[in-house]
Structure formats: structure tokens, C-alpha cells
Design brief:
With 427 residues, this protein is α+β, with helices and mostly antiparallel strands. It folds into two domains: 2-205, Metalloenzyme, LuxS/M16 peptidase-like (Cytochrome Bc1 Complex, Chain A, domain 1), CATH 3.30.830.10; 228-420, Cytochrome Bc1 Complex, Chain A, domain 1. It contains 16 helices and eleven strands. The strands form two sheets. A six-stranded mixed β-sheet has the order 1-2-6-3-5-4, sandwiched between helices. The relative contact order is 0.16.
């Protein structure tokens, strides 16, 4: 049983009864992410997420973990390009704790100045740790090159300069602007009766006041004007290649054909960032063309569901015997082959089957069901999730060829190479 409703204060509620186990997963999603951050305040959304675990008068930080653990539950939070979300999965008879906690910290988080400074150190350390990872460095450079105008330009964690200069008032203002009922979606899946649960939700969230709709940075990215190439040097021993193509938003009709193309070329991507099993990509065209021939050690492809157009990225690990340019040549040859000749019906059926499987793995438990209720609502609506497999099954070989021709053109891409300074790249 699925129900969608909206409280008078604007809070959207999506409930799905699943009576297979005495568990409930409860999520609160806010329509705020790194794309809502102006220059000078990058990283503020992620930092606010951290501060939400520092407590309120009713729920001091010292008791939060203990309260959830004592009831046998789990909890966490995530910040992304388009949204920030918080969840608790608990025994069904303990779910009131999650409702009370999230309603309270929607309005009463303290943002103690000493806690803000302590978290500044934590987040700068996290940022420095990321910078030790070659693929973070390369991905950040590609994202910055791909988006000159749109605020997808910067990484979710933010730029170090902003992380050093953001103030407690900056964080609190961001919180008060975006953490409001009419900018939030509450999702719940599990062992409950809908009418009784709606009354509980109304009791906790109904008294909260709505506020003016948050301002949005409306800066559409212009169409790409040609291929961009860049090189990043840094620590490590391995050369990497990333090739990122501008692709449409999740609500675009081509999304499902792109999912089949993804599965066929590189192995299916898991759209559920929260969890779900992986599937080997050894039957994919790029694995056979690059890894089996030793032109590369590994190859992967992937993208995610976003509100605005983002990037599909191939990531290739160089083979020590070959220069990375050979891998790029092989990638281009496989793309050209798909653009020139549609794949066989059999190949598309296999790709769809693999995409269906990884999608099912990412939606099989109660926590993932509640995740999808909110995640789909961030960029479309829940019907996007429920119709996904049917639309996937409708994709034809001609559709796969068409989206390869439309979106995977060289003038729509950024090509980035990571060269380890110790070795100067592969020979």
C-alpha cells in the first residue's frame, strides 16, 4: 500500500506499507545540496549535515547514538548535488524516536560555535584525505571544466578556501533557509498501518511552521562548445583516464536507453547510492576491448540520477605495458562501432537483464524501499521508480544506437588524465 499526502505546512509525505518484517525505515529529504551553494560558500550543505548530529536541547549529541543503538536501530545521512537526507531504520514499535528526532532537528539544531570550529577541522581533514586519492583529484578537475556556469561545478565537500572561511552564521543561515517543512519530503517504508502513522507524523511535524520558499541558483550550463582535455599530476603509482560526457537529467526520456547503453558498454551502474549488490562487467564491450586485450587494467562506466543534466564518466586504469592513449583509442573505437551499427537484439536483451538485476538488488530491503520513495521524488516522482523496469524493457537496439550518437560525441566531453608524479605516467 502506497500513500502520498502533504501536510498544511508543505511537508510532503510518502508511505509504503511492507509487512514482511517488524521494521520501519524513516527518511527525511531536503531539497538542498551542493548546487544550492554560491561561490564563496561551497561545502556549506555538507557541513550543515554534520552539524545536525551535534544535538538539540531535547536530544543532546551525547545521547543521539546511544538512543538509536539502544533501540536496535541504524542511522546516517548523505549530502549530494541536489539533496541532503537523513534516515533511521528501527524496530517498528520504536519508530516514534525517529519521528521526534527529525522533527526536533528540523528546527532546533544548536550550531554551537565551538562545535562549528571542531567540525571545520574534521571536514578540512576529510577534504585533505580526498586529495590523496587520484580519482578524486581527477574527478574534481573534470567537474570544474565541464561546468563553468552551473553550480554542479564544485565537489559536494566544497573548496578548501571556503571551508576555512565559512562562519557559524553562514551555516545557520543556510540551515534556517532550507531546513523547512515546505522544502522537505518524509518517506517511510515498513511494518505500520498508514492511517495511524499519518497521525503520528502529524503530531510531530504538523506544528512546525512553513517558511518562504528557498532561493535557487538558476544558472543553466550552456551547450558544450568542443572537447576539453586536461592533465592532473599528483601522488601515486598509477595512471588513470576519465572521459566524461554531458548527458541529460534523470527526468529525460533518454535516461532508460542510456541505462542500457551503460550496461552494454561498461556493465550496469547501481543507481542506488545507498546500497545494492554489484554485477561483473566482464561481458561488457569495453572490458573485452580494453581489459581482455591488456590495453587497460580496468574499465568502468557510470552516472547518476540528477535534477539537471550531469555527466556520464568512463574510468580507465592504465596498463603498465601501454600508454594511456591506446586505451582512449580503444574506447573511441567502441563508441564509434555502437554509433555506426546498432547492437544485436540478443546483446540488448542481456544488457537489460543485467540492468534489471542491479536495480532489483538496490531496492530489495525495507531501508532501500524507503530510500527510493524519497530519492525518486528529488528528481522526478515515485512513479519514475515504479515504471523504471517497464521502460527499461521497451528499449530497442535502435534506441541504444541513437543515444550513443546523440550524447557520446567528442564535442560533448572532457578527457582527463591523471599522471603520478613519481613515475611520470605509463610508458
Amino acid at each position: 500500500m502506497f500513500t502520498k499526502t502533504t501536510l498544511q505546512n508543505g511537508l510532503v509525505i510518502l508511505l509504503k506499507e511492507i509487512h514482511t518484517a517488524p521494521l520501519i525505515s524513516h527518511w527525511v529529504w531536503y531539497r538542498v545540496g551542493s548546487k544550492d551553494e554560491p561561490t564563496g560558500k561551497t561545502g556549506v550543505s555538507h557541513w550543515v549535515e554534520h552539524m545536525q548530529f551535534k544535538g538539540t536541547a531535547q536530544f543532546p549529541a551525547s545521547m543521539l547514538d546511544k538512543a538509536i543503538a539502544r533501540e536496535g536501530g541504524t542511522w546516517n545521512a548523505f549530502t549530494f548535488l541536489d539533496w541532503t537526507t537523513y534516515y533511521e531504520t528501527l524496530p517498528a514499535d520504536k519508530i516514534e524516536l525517529a519521528l521526534r528526532l527529525e522533527a526536533d532537528r528540523m528546527v532546533n539544531s544548536r550550531f554551537d560555535p565551538s562545535e562549528v570550529e571542531a567540525e571545520r577541522t574534521v571536514i578540512l581533514s576529510e577534504r585533505e584525505g580526498n586529495e590523496n586519492e587520484p580519482l578524486f583529484r581527477l574527478g574534481e578537475a573534470i567537474q570544474a571544466a565541464a561546468f563553468r556556469v552551473h553550480p554542479y561545478h564544485h565537489e559536494v565537500i566544497g573548496d578548501a578556501a571556503d571551508l576555512r572561511s565559512l562562519t557559524r552564521d553562514d551555516l545557520y543561515a543556510h540551515y534556517k533557509t532550507f531546513y523547512i517543512p515546505n522544502n522537505a519530503v518524509l518517506t517511510m517504508a515498513g511494518d505500520f498501518e498508514t492511517e495511524a502513522m499519518l497521525r503520528q507524523i502529524e503530531d510531530q511535524f504538523g506544528p512546525l511552521s512553513s517558511a518562504p520558499s528557498p532561493p535557487r541558483l538558476n544558472r543553466p550550463e550552456p551547450e558544450p562548445q568542443g572537447e576539453v582535455r586536461l592533465t592532473v599530476e599528483g601522488p601515486g603509482e598509477t595512471t588513470y583516464l576519465q572521459v566524461s560526457y554531458h548527458v541529460p537529467a534523470a527526468s529525460h526520456p533518454d535516461f532508460h536507453a542510456l541505462a542500457v547503453l551503460d550496461s552494454l558498454l561498461a556493465g550496469p551502474s547501481n543507481l542506488n547510492m545507498f546500497g545494492g549488490g554489484g554485477i561483473s562487467n566482464k561481458t561488457s564491450r569495453l572490458y573485452r576491448a580494453l581489459v581482455d586485450t591488456e590495453r587497460a587494467v580496468s574499465v568502468h562506466g557510470g552516472w547518476t540520477a540528477t535534477v539537471d543534466p550531469f555527466l556520464y564518466t568512463f574510468t580507465i586504469t592504465a596498463h603498465p605495458k601501454y600508454r594511456i592513449e591506446k586505451a582512449l583509442t580503444a574506447l573511441d573505437a567502441e563508441l564509434a562501432r555502437l554509433q555506426d551499427t546498432p547492437p544485436s537484439e540478443e546483446e540488448v536483451i542481456r544488457a537489460i537483464k543485467q540492468s534489471r538485476a542491479i536495480f532489483a538488488y538496490g531496492a530489495e530491503n525495507i531501508t532501500n524501499q524507503a530510500f527510493w520513495l524519497g530519492y525518486a521524488e528529488m528528481f522526478a516522482e515515485y512513479g519514475w521508480f515504479t515504471s523504471y523496469l517497464d521502460k527499461l524493457a521497451q528499449v530497442t537496439p535502435a534506441d541504444v544506437q541513437r543515444v550513443a550518437q546523440t550524447w557520446f560525441r567528442s564535442n560533448r566531453r572532457v578527457v582527463g588524465t591523471y599522471i603520478p608524479v613519481e613515475e611520470g605516467g605509463a610508458s
